[in-house]
Amino acid sequence: MPGRLAITSPQLLDLHPAAADLRRLVLAGMERQPRQLPAWLLYDDQGSQLFDAICEQPEYGLTRTETALLQQRAPELAQALGPGVLVEFGAGSARKVSPLLEALQPAAYVALDISAGHLLQACRALQQRHPTTPVLGISCDYSQLEQLPAHPWLERRRLGFYPGSSIGNFTPEEAVSLLRQFLRLLGPDSRLLIGLDQPKAVERLEAAYNDQAGYSAAFALNLLNRLNRDLEGDFHPEAFRYRAWWQAEHSRIAMALISREAQTVTLAGRRWAFAAGEPLITEYSVKYTPSAFAQLAQRAGWRPLQRWSDAQGDLSLHLLEPADRAPAVDLEPDSGQPHSER
Ligand SMILES: C[S@@+](CC[C@H](N)C(=O)[O-])C[C@H]1O[C@@H](n2cnc3c(N)ncnc32)[C@H](O)[C@@H]1O
């Protein structure tokens, strides 16, 4: 943008996410039946790098499709979002946001992510690519959104961006709470753009989460290294195998580490028995149809404004606005056709 000075370093804020709660959350997850740990635990430095590798696998089309859609539609998206500060939730490597930054020229860009070291590198790289956009990285857990320290950039009109179908890692009830938290942070004059993978043929979905090169397996197994390191565990990763499968009754992919044999492990000062074949759920990925997601968003106080999808109808970008600032609209049923709808 003419008149903007080049910035060489991003601002960074580390809120030391979740460390205090790690033990409590892991113990609670190990008590569940089936055992299930929070998906964010997958994202230490190594996990974030493995996730980037997953995104490049031929079976995992989500990243390529969403990136292409953002590139194609950037001018329309920028117009529909309007002016403000762009806040990305779960930014990861922050690679998808570039077309939006170019088209929108936001007052500033704020990237939030729980994976502190990875976020730091991502913000530095992004600042180099977009030297005229002020960049702020905040390492935090979504549970800390209501305690973010005051920052002048966050005083302006806020636009949310949540790509990657990451909301699918939460149960529908948790997703409603998260969308409410986003609404409280973004405020009544905001917009929220969310990227969502859609239900599709089971073979394609299962292949996407079971890539041949083994990155999805390595990503899940890395969780055991993290537990060994952070909670004095003695897991042997080779004693587990990775599996991802479609659960039609929940419209989701389940990802788990399956114990290869009966075994006992130590974790957080306790002993835990695993039966042969017992799963430890590492994450879910819920797939919403556009109308199911619109209903979910409405329960959280958002109103669907517009939706863009790719030609195959694999993925949608949903634009939402706070419900209490606009008149009601009728929701159209899913057409399954590629389109942009208002
Ligand atoms: C599925 S990845 C998506 C990354 C990127 N947005 C994309 O579309 O490729 C989810 C990202 O959200 C972050 N994340 C997961 N749970 C989080 C939480 N509770 N609070 C903050 N960030 C979280 C992870 O570190 C990771 O970078």
Can you characterise this structure?
- This protein is α/β, with parallel strands linked by helices and 342 residues long.
- The chain is built from 9 helices and 15 strands.
- The chain has a 9-stranded mixed beta sheet with strand order 1-5-4-3-6-7-14-13-15, sandwiched between helices.
- A hairpin with a 5-residue loop joins strand 13 (302-309) and strand 14 (315-322).
- Helix 2 packs antiparallel against helix 8 (215-230) and helix 3 runs parallel beside helix 4 (98-104).
- It is globular, with a radius of gyration of 20 Å.
- The protein starts with 10 loop residues before the first strand and ends with a strand.
- The model is unreliable at 327-339 (pLDDT under 50).
- It binds S-adenosylmethionine.
- The site of S-adenosylmethionine (SAM) has 18 residues, from helix 2.
Which key terms come to mind for this protein?
single chain; 342 residues; alpha/beta; Rossmann fold; 2 domains; nine-stranded mixed beta sheet; four-stranded mixed beta sheet; 9 helices; 25% strand; binds S-adenosylmethionine
Question: Quick recap of the structure?
Answer:
Helices cover 32% and strands 25% of the residues. It has 342 residues and is an alpha/beta fold.
